């Protein structure tokens, strides 16, 4: 799949995700996602990763919380959720919603205006709000997926929900292997040994696609919880949660 990167304030959401992940002050808030997400048994290696689901949830929540802040404070800040959403729709979909419906927010009850607007977008514009949220979430996921330190903290948080219901080891699909091989540039994330030459000749059981947070610690079978490792480093890591912040320079 090719992503048409529009970069609509995605770094703002990436910063929020990175700053909140694994920190005590945000533990209760992020736990809301984990508890809601895993009320049912999670799918093994879903194409819509748990990271994408988190990005969607985060953006939706941030928009709502900002609308609620404006409603309570009466202050319209630079971050105006309705304007941001309009701009995102124009950027991703080429539609100027403000011209189509002439909607104006009621500053006396901004939260009600916001909720009515979201309802309008989803009911009368064919789910446009959820569609554009997914556009933004896809970009945020793409950027956060490159950050293994974030992925470690993210997966450690998700693992809390499965400490007493461990996932079973499953065959890793080829699309997951390709995604991880591409992100890690064919090198062991720990020692940076180039594994590209070996990849084509090794048997499947000799290819070390490693869970960042191990299954026996509650880790998920999800593309965002897999990293590339050489045999020696993988065996040394054993069943511990670990990754590396070493990256190959682009030039």
From TrEMBL:
Transit peptide found in the keyword field: no
Source taxon at top rank: Bacteria
GO MF annotation, one: zinc ion binding
InterPro entries xref list: HNH, HNH_nuc, NA-targeting_endonuclease
Domain HNH nuclease: residue ranges: 175-235
Keyword terms of this UniProt record: Endonuclease, Hydrolase, Nuclease
Pfam family, any one: HNH
Keyword Phosphoprotein: no
PANTHER family according to UniProt: SLL1193 PROTEIN, TYPE IV METHYL-DIRECTED RESTRICTION ENZYME ECOKMCRA
Name of the protein in question: Restriction endonuclease
Protein's organism: Gottschalkia purinilytica (Clostridium purinilyticum)
């Amino acid at each position: 799949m090719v992503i048409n990167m529009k970069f609509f304030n995605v770094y703002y959401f990436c910063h929020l995700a990175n700053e909140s992940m694994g920190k005590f002050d945000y533990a209760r808030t992020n736990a809301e996602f984990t508890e809601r997400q895993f009320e049912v048994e999670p799918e093994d290696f879903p194409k819509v990763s748990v990271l994408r689901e988190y990005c969607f949830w985060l953006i939706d929540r941030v928009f709502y919380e900002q609308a609620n802040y404006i409603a309570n404070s009466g202050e319209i800040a630079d971050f105006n959720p309705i304007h941001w959403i309009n701009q995102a729709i124009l950027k991703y979909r080429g539609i100027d919603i403000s011209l189509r419906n002439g909607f104006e927010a009621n500053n006396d009850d901004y939260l009600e205006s916001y909720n009515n607007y979201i309802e309008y977008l989803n009911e009368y514009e064919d789910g446009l709000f959820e569609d554009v949220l997914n556009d933004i979430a896809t970009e945020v996921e793409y950027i956060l997926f490159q950050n293994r330190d974030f992925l470690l903290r993210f997966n450690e948080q998700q693992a809390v929900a499965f400490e007493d219901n461990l996932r079973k080891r499953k065959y890793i699909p080829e699309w997951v292997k390709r995604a991880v091989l591409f992100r890690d540039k064919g090198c062991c994330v720990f020692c940076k040994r180039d594994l590209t030459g070996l990849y084509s000749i090794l048997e499947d059981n000799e290819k070390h696609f490693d869970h960042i947070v191990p299954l026996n610690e509650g880790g998920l079978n999800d593309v965002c919880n897999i990293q590339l490792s050489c045999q020696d480093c993988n065996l040394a890591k054993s069943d511990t949660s670990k990754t590396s912040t070493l990256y190959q320079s682009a030039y």
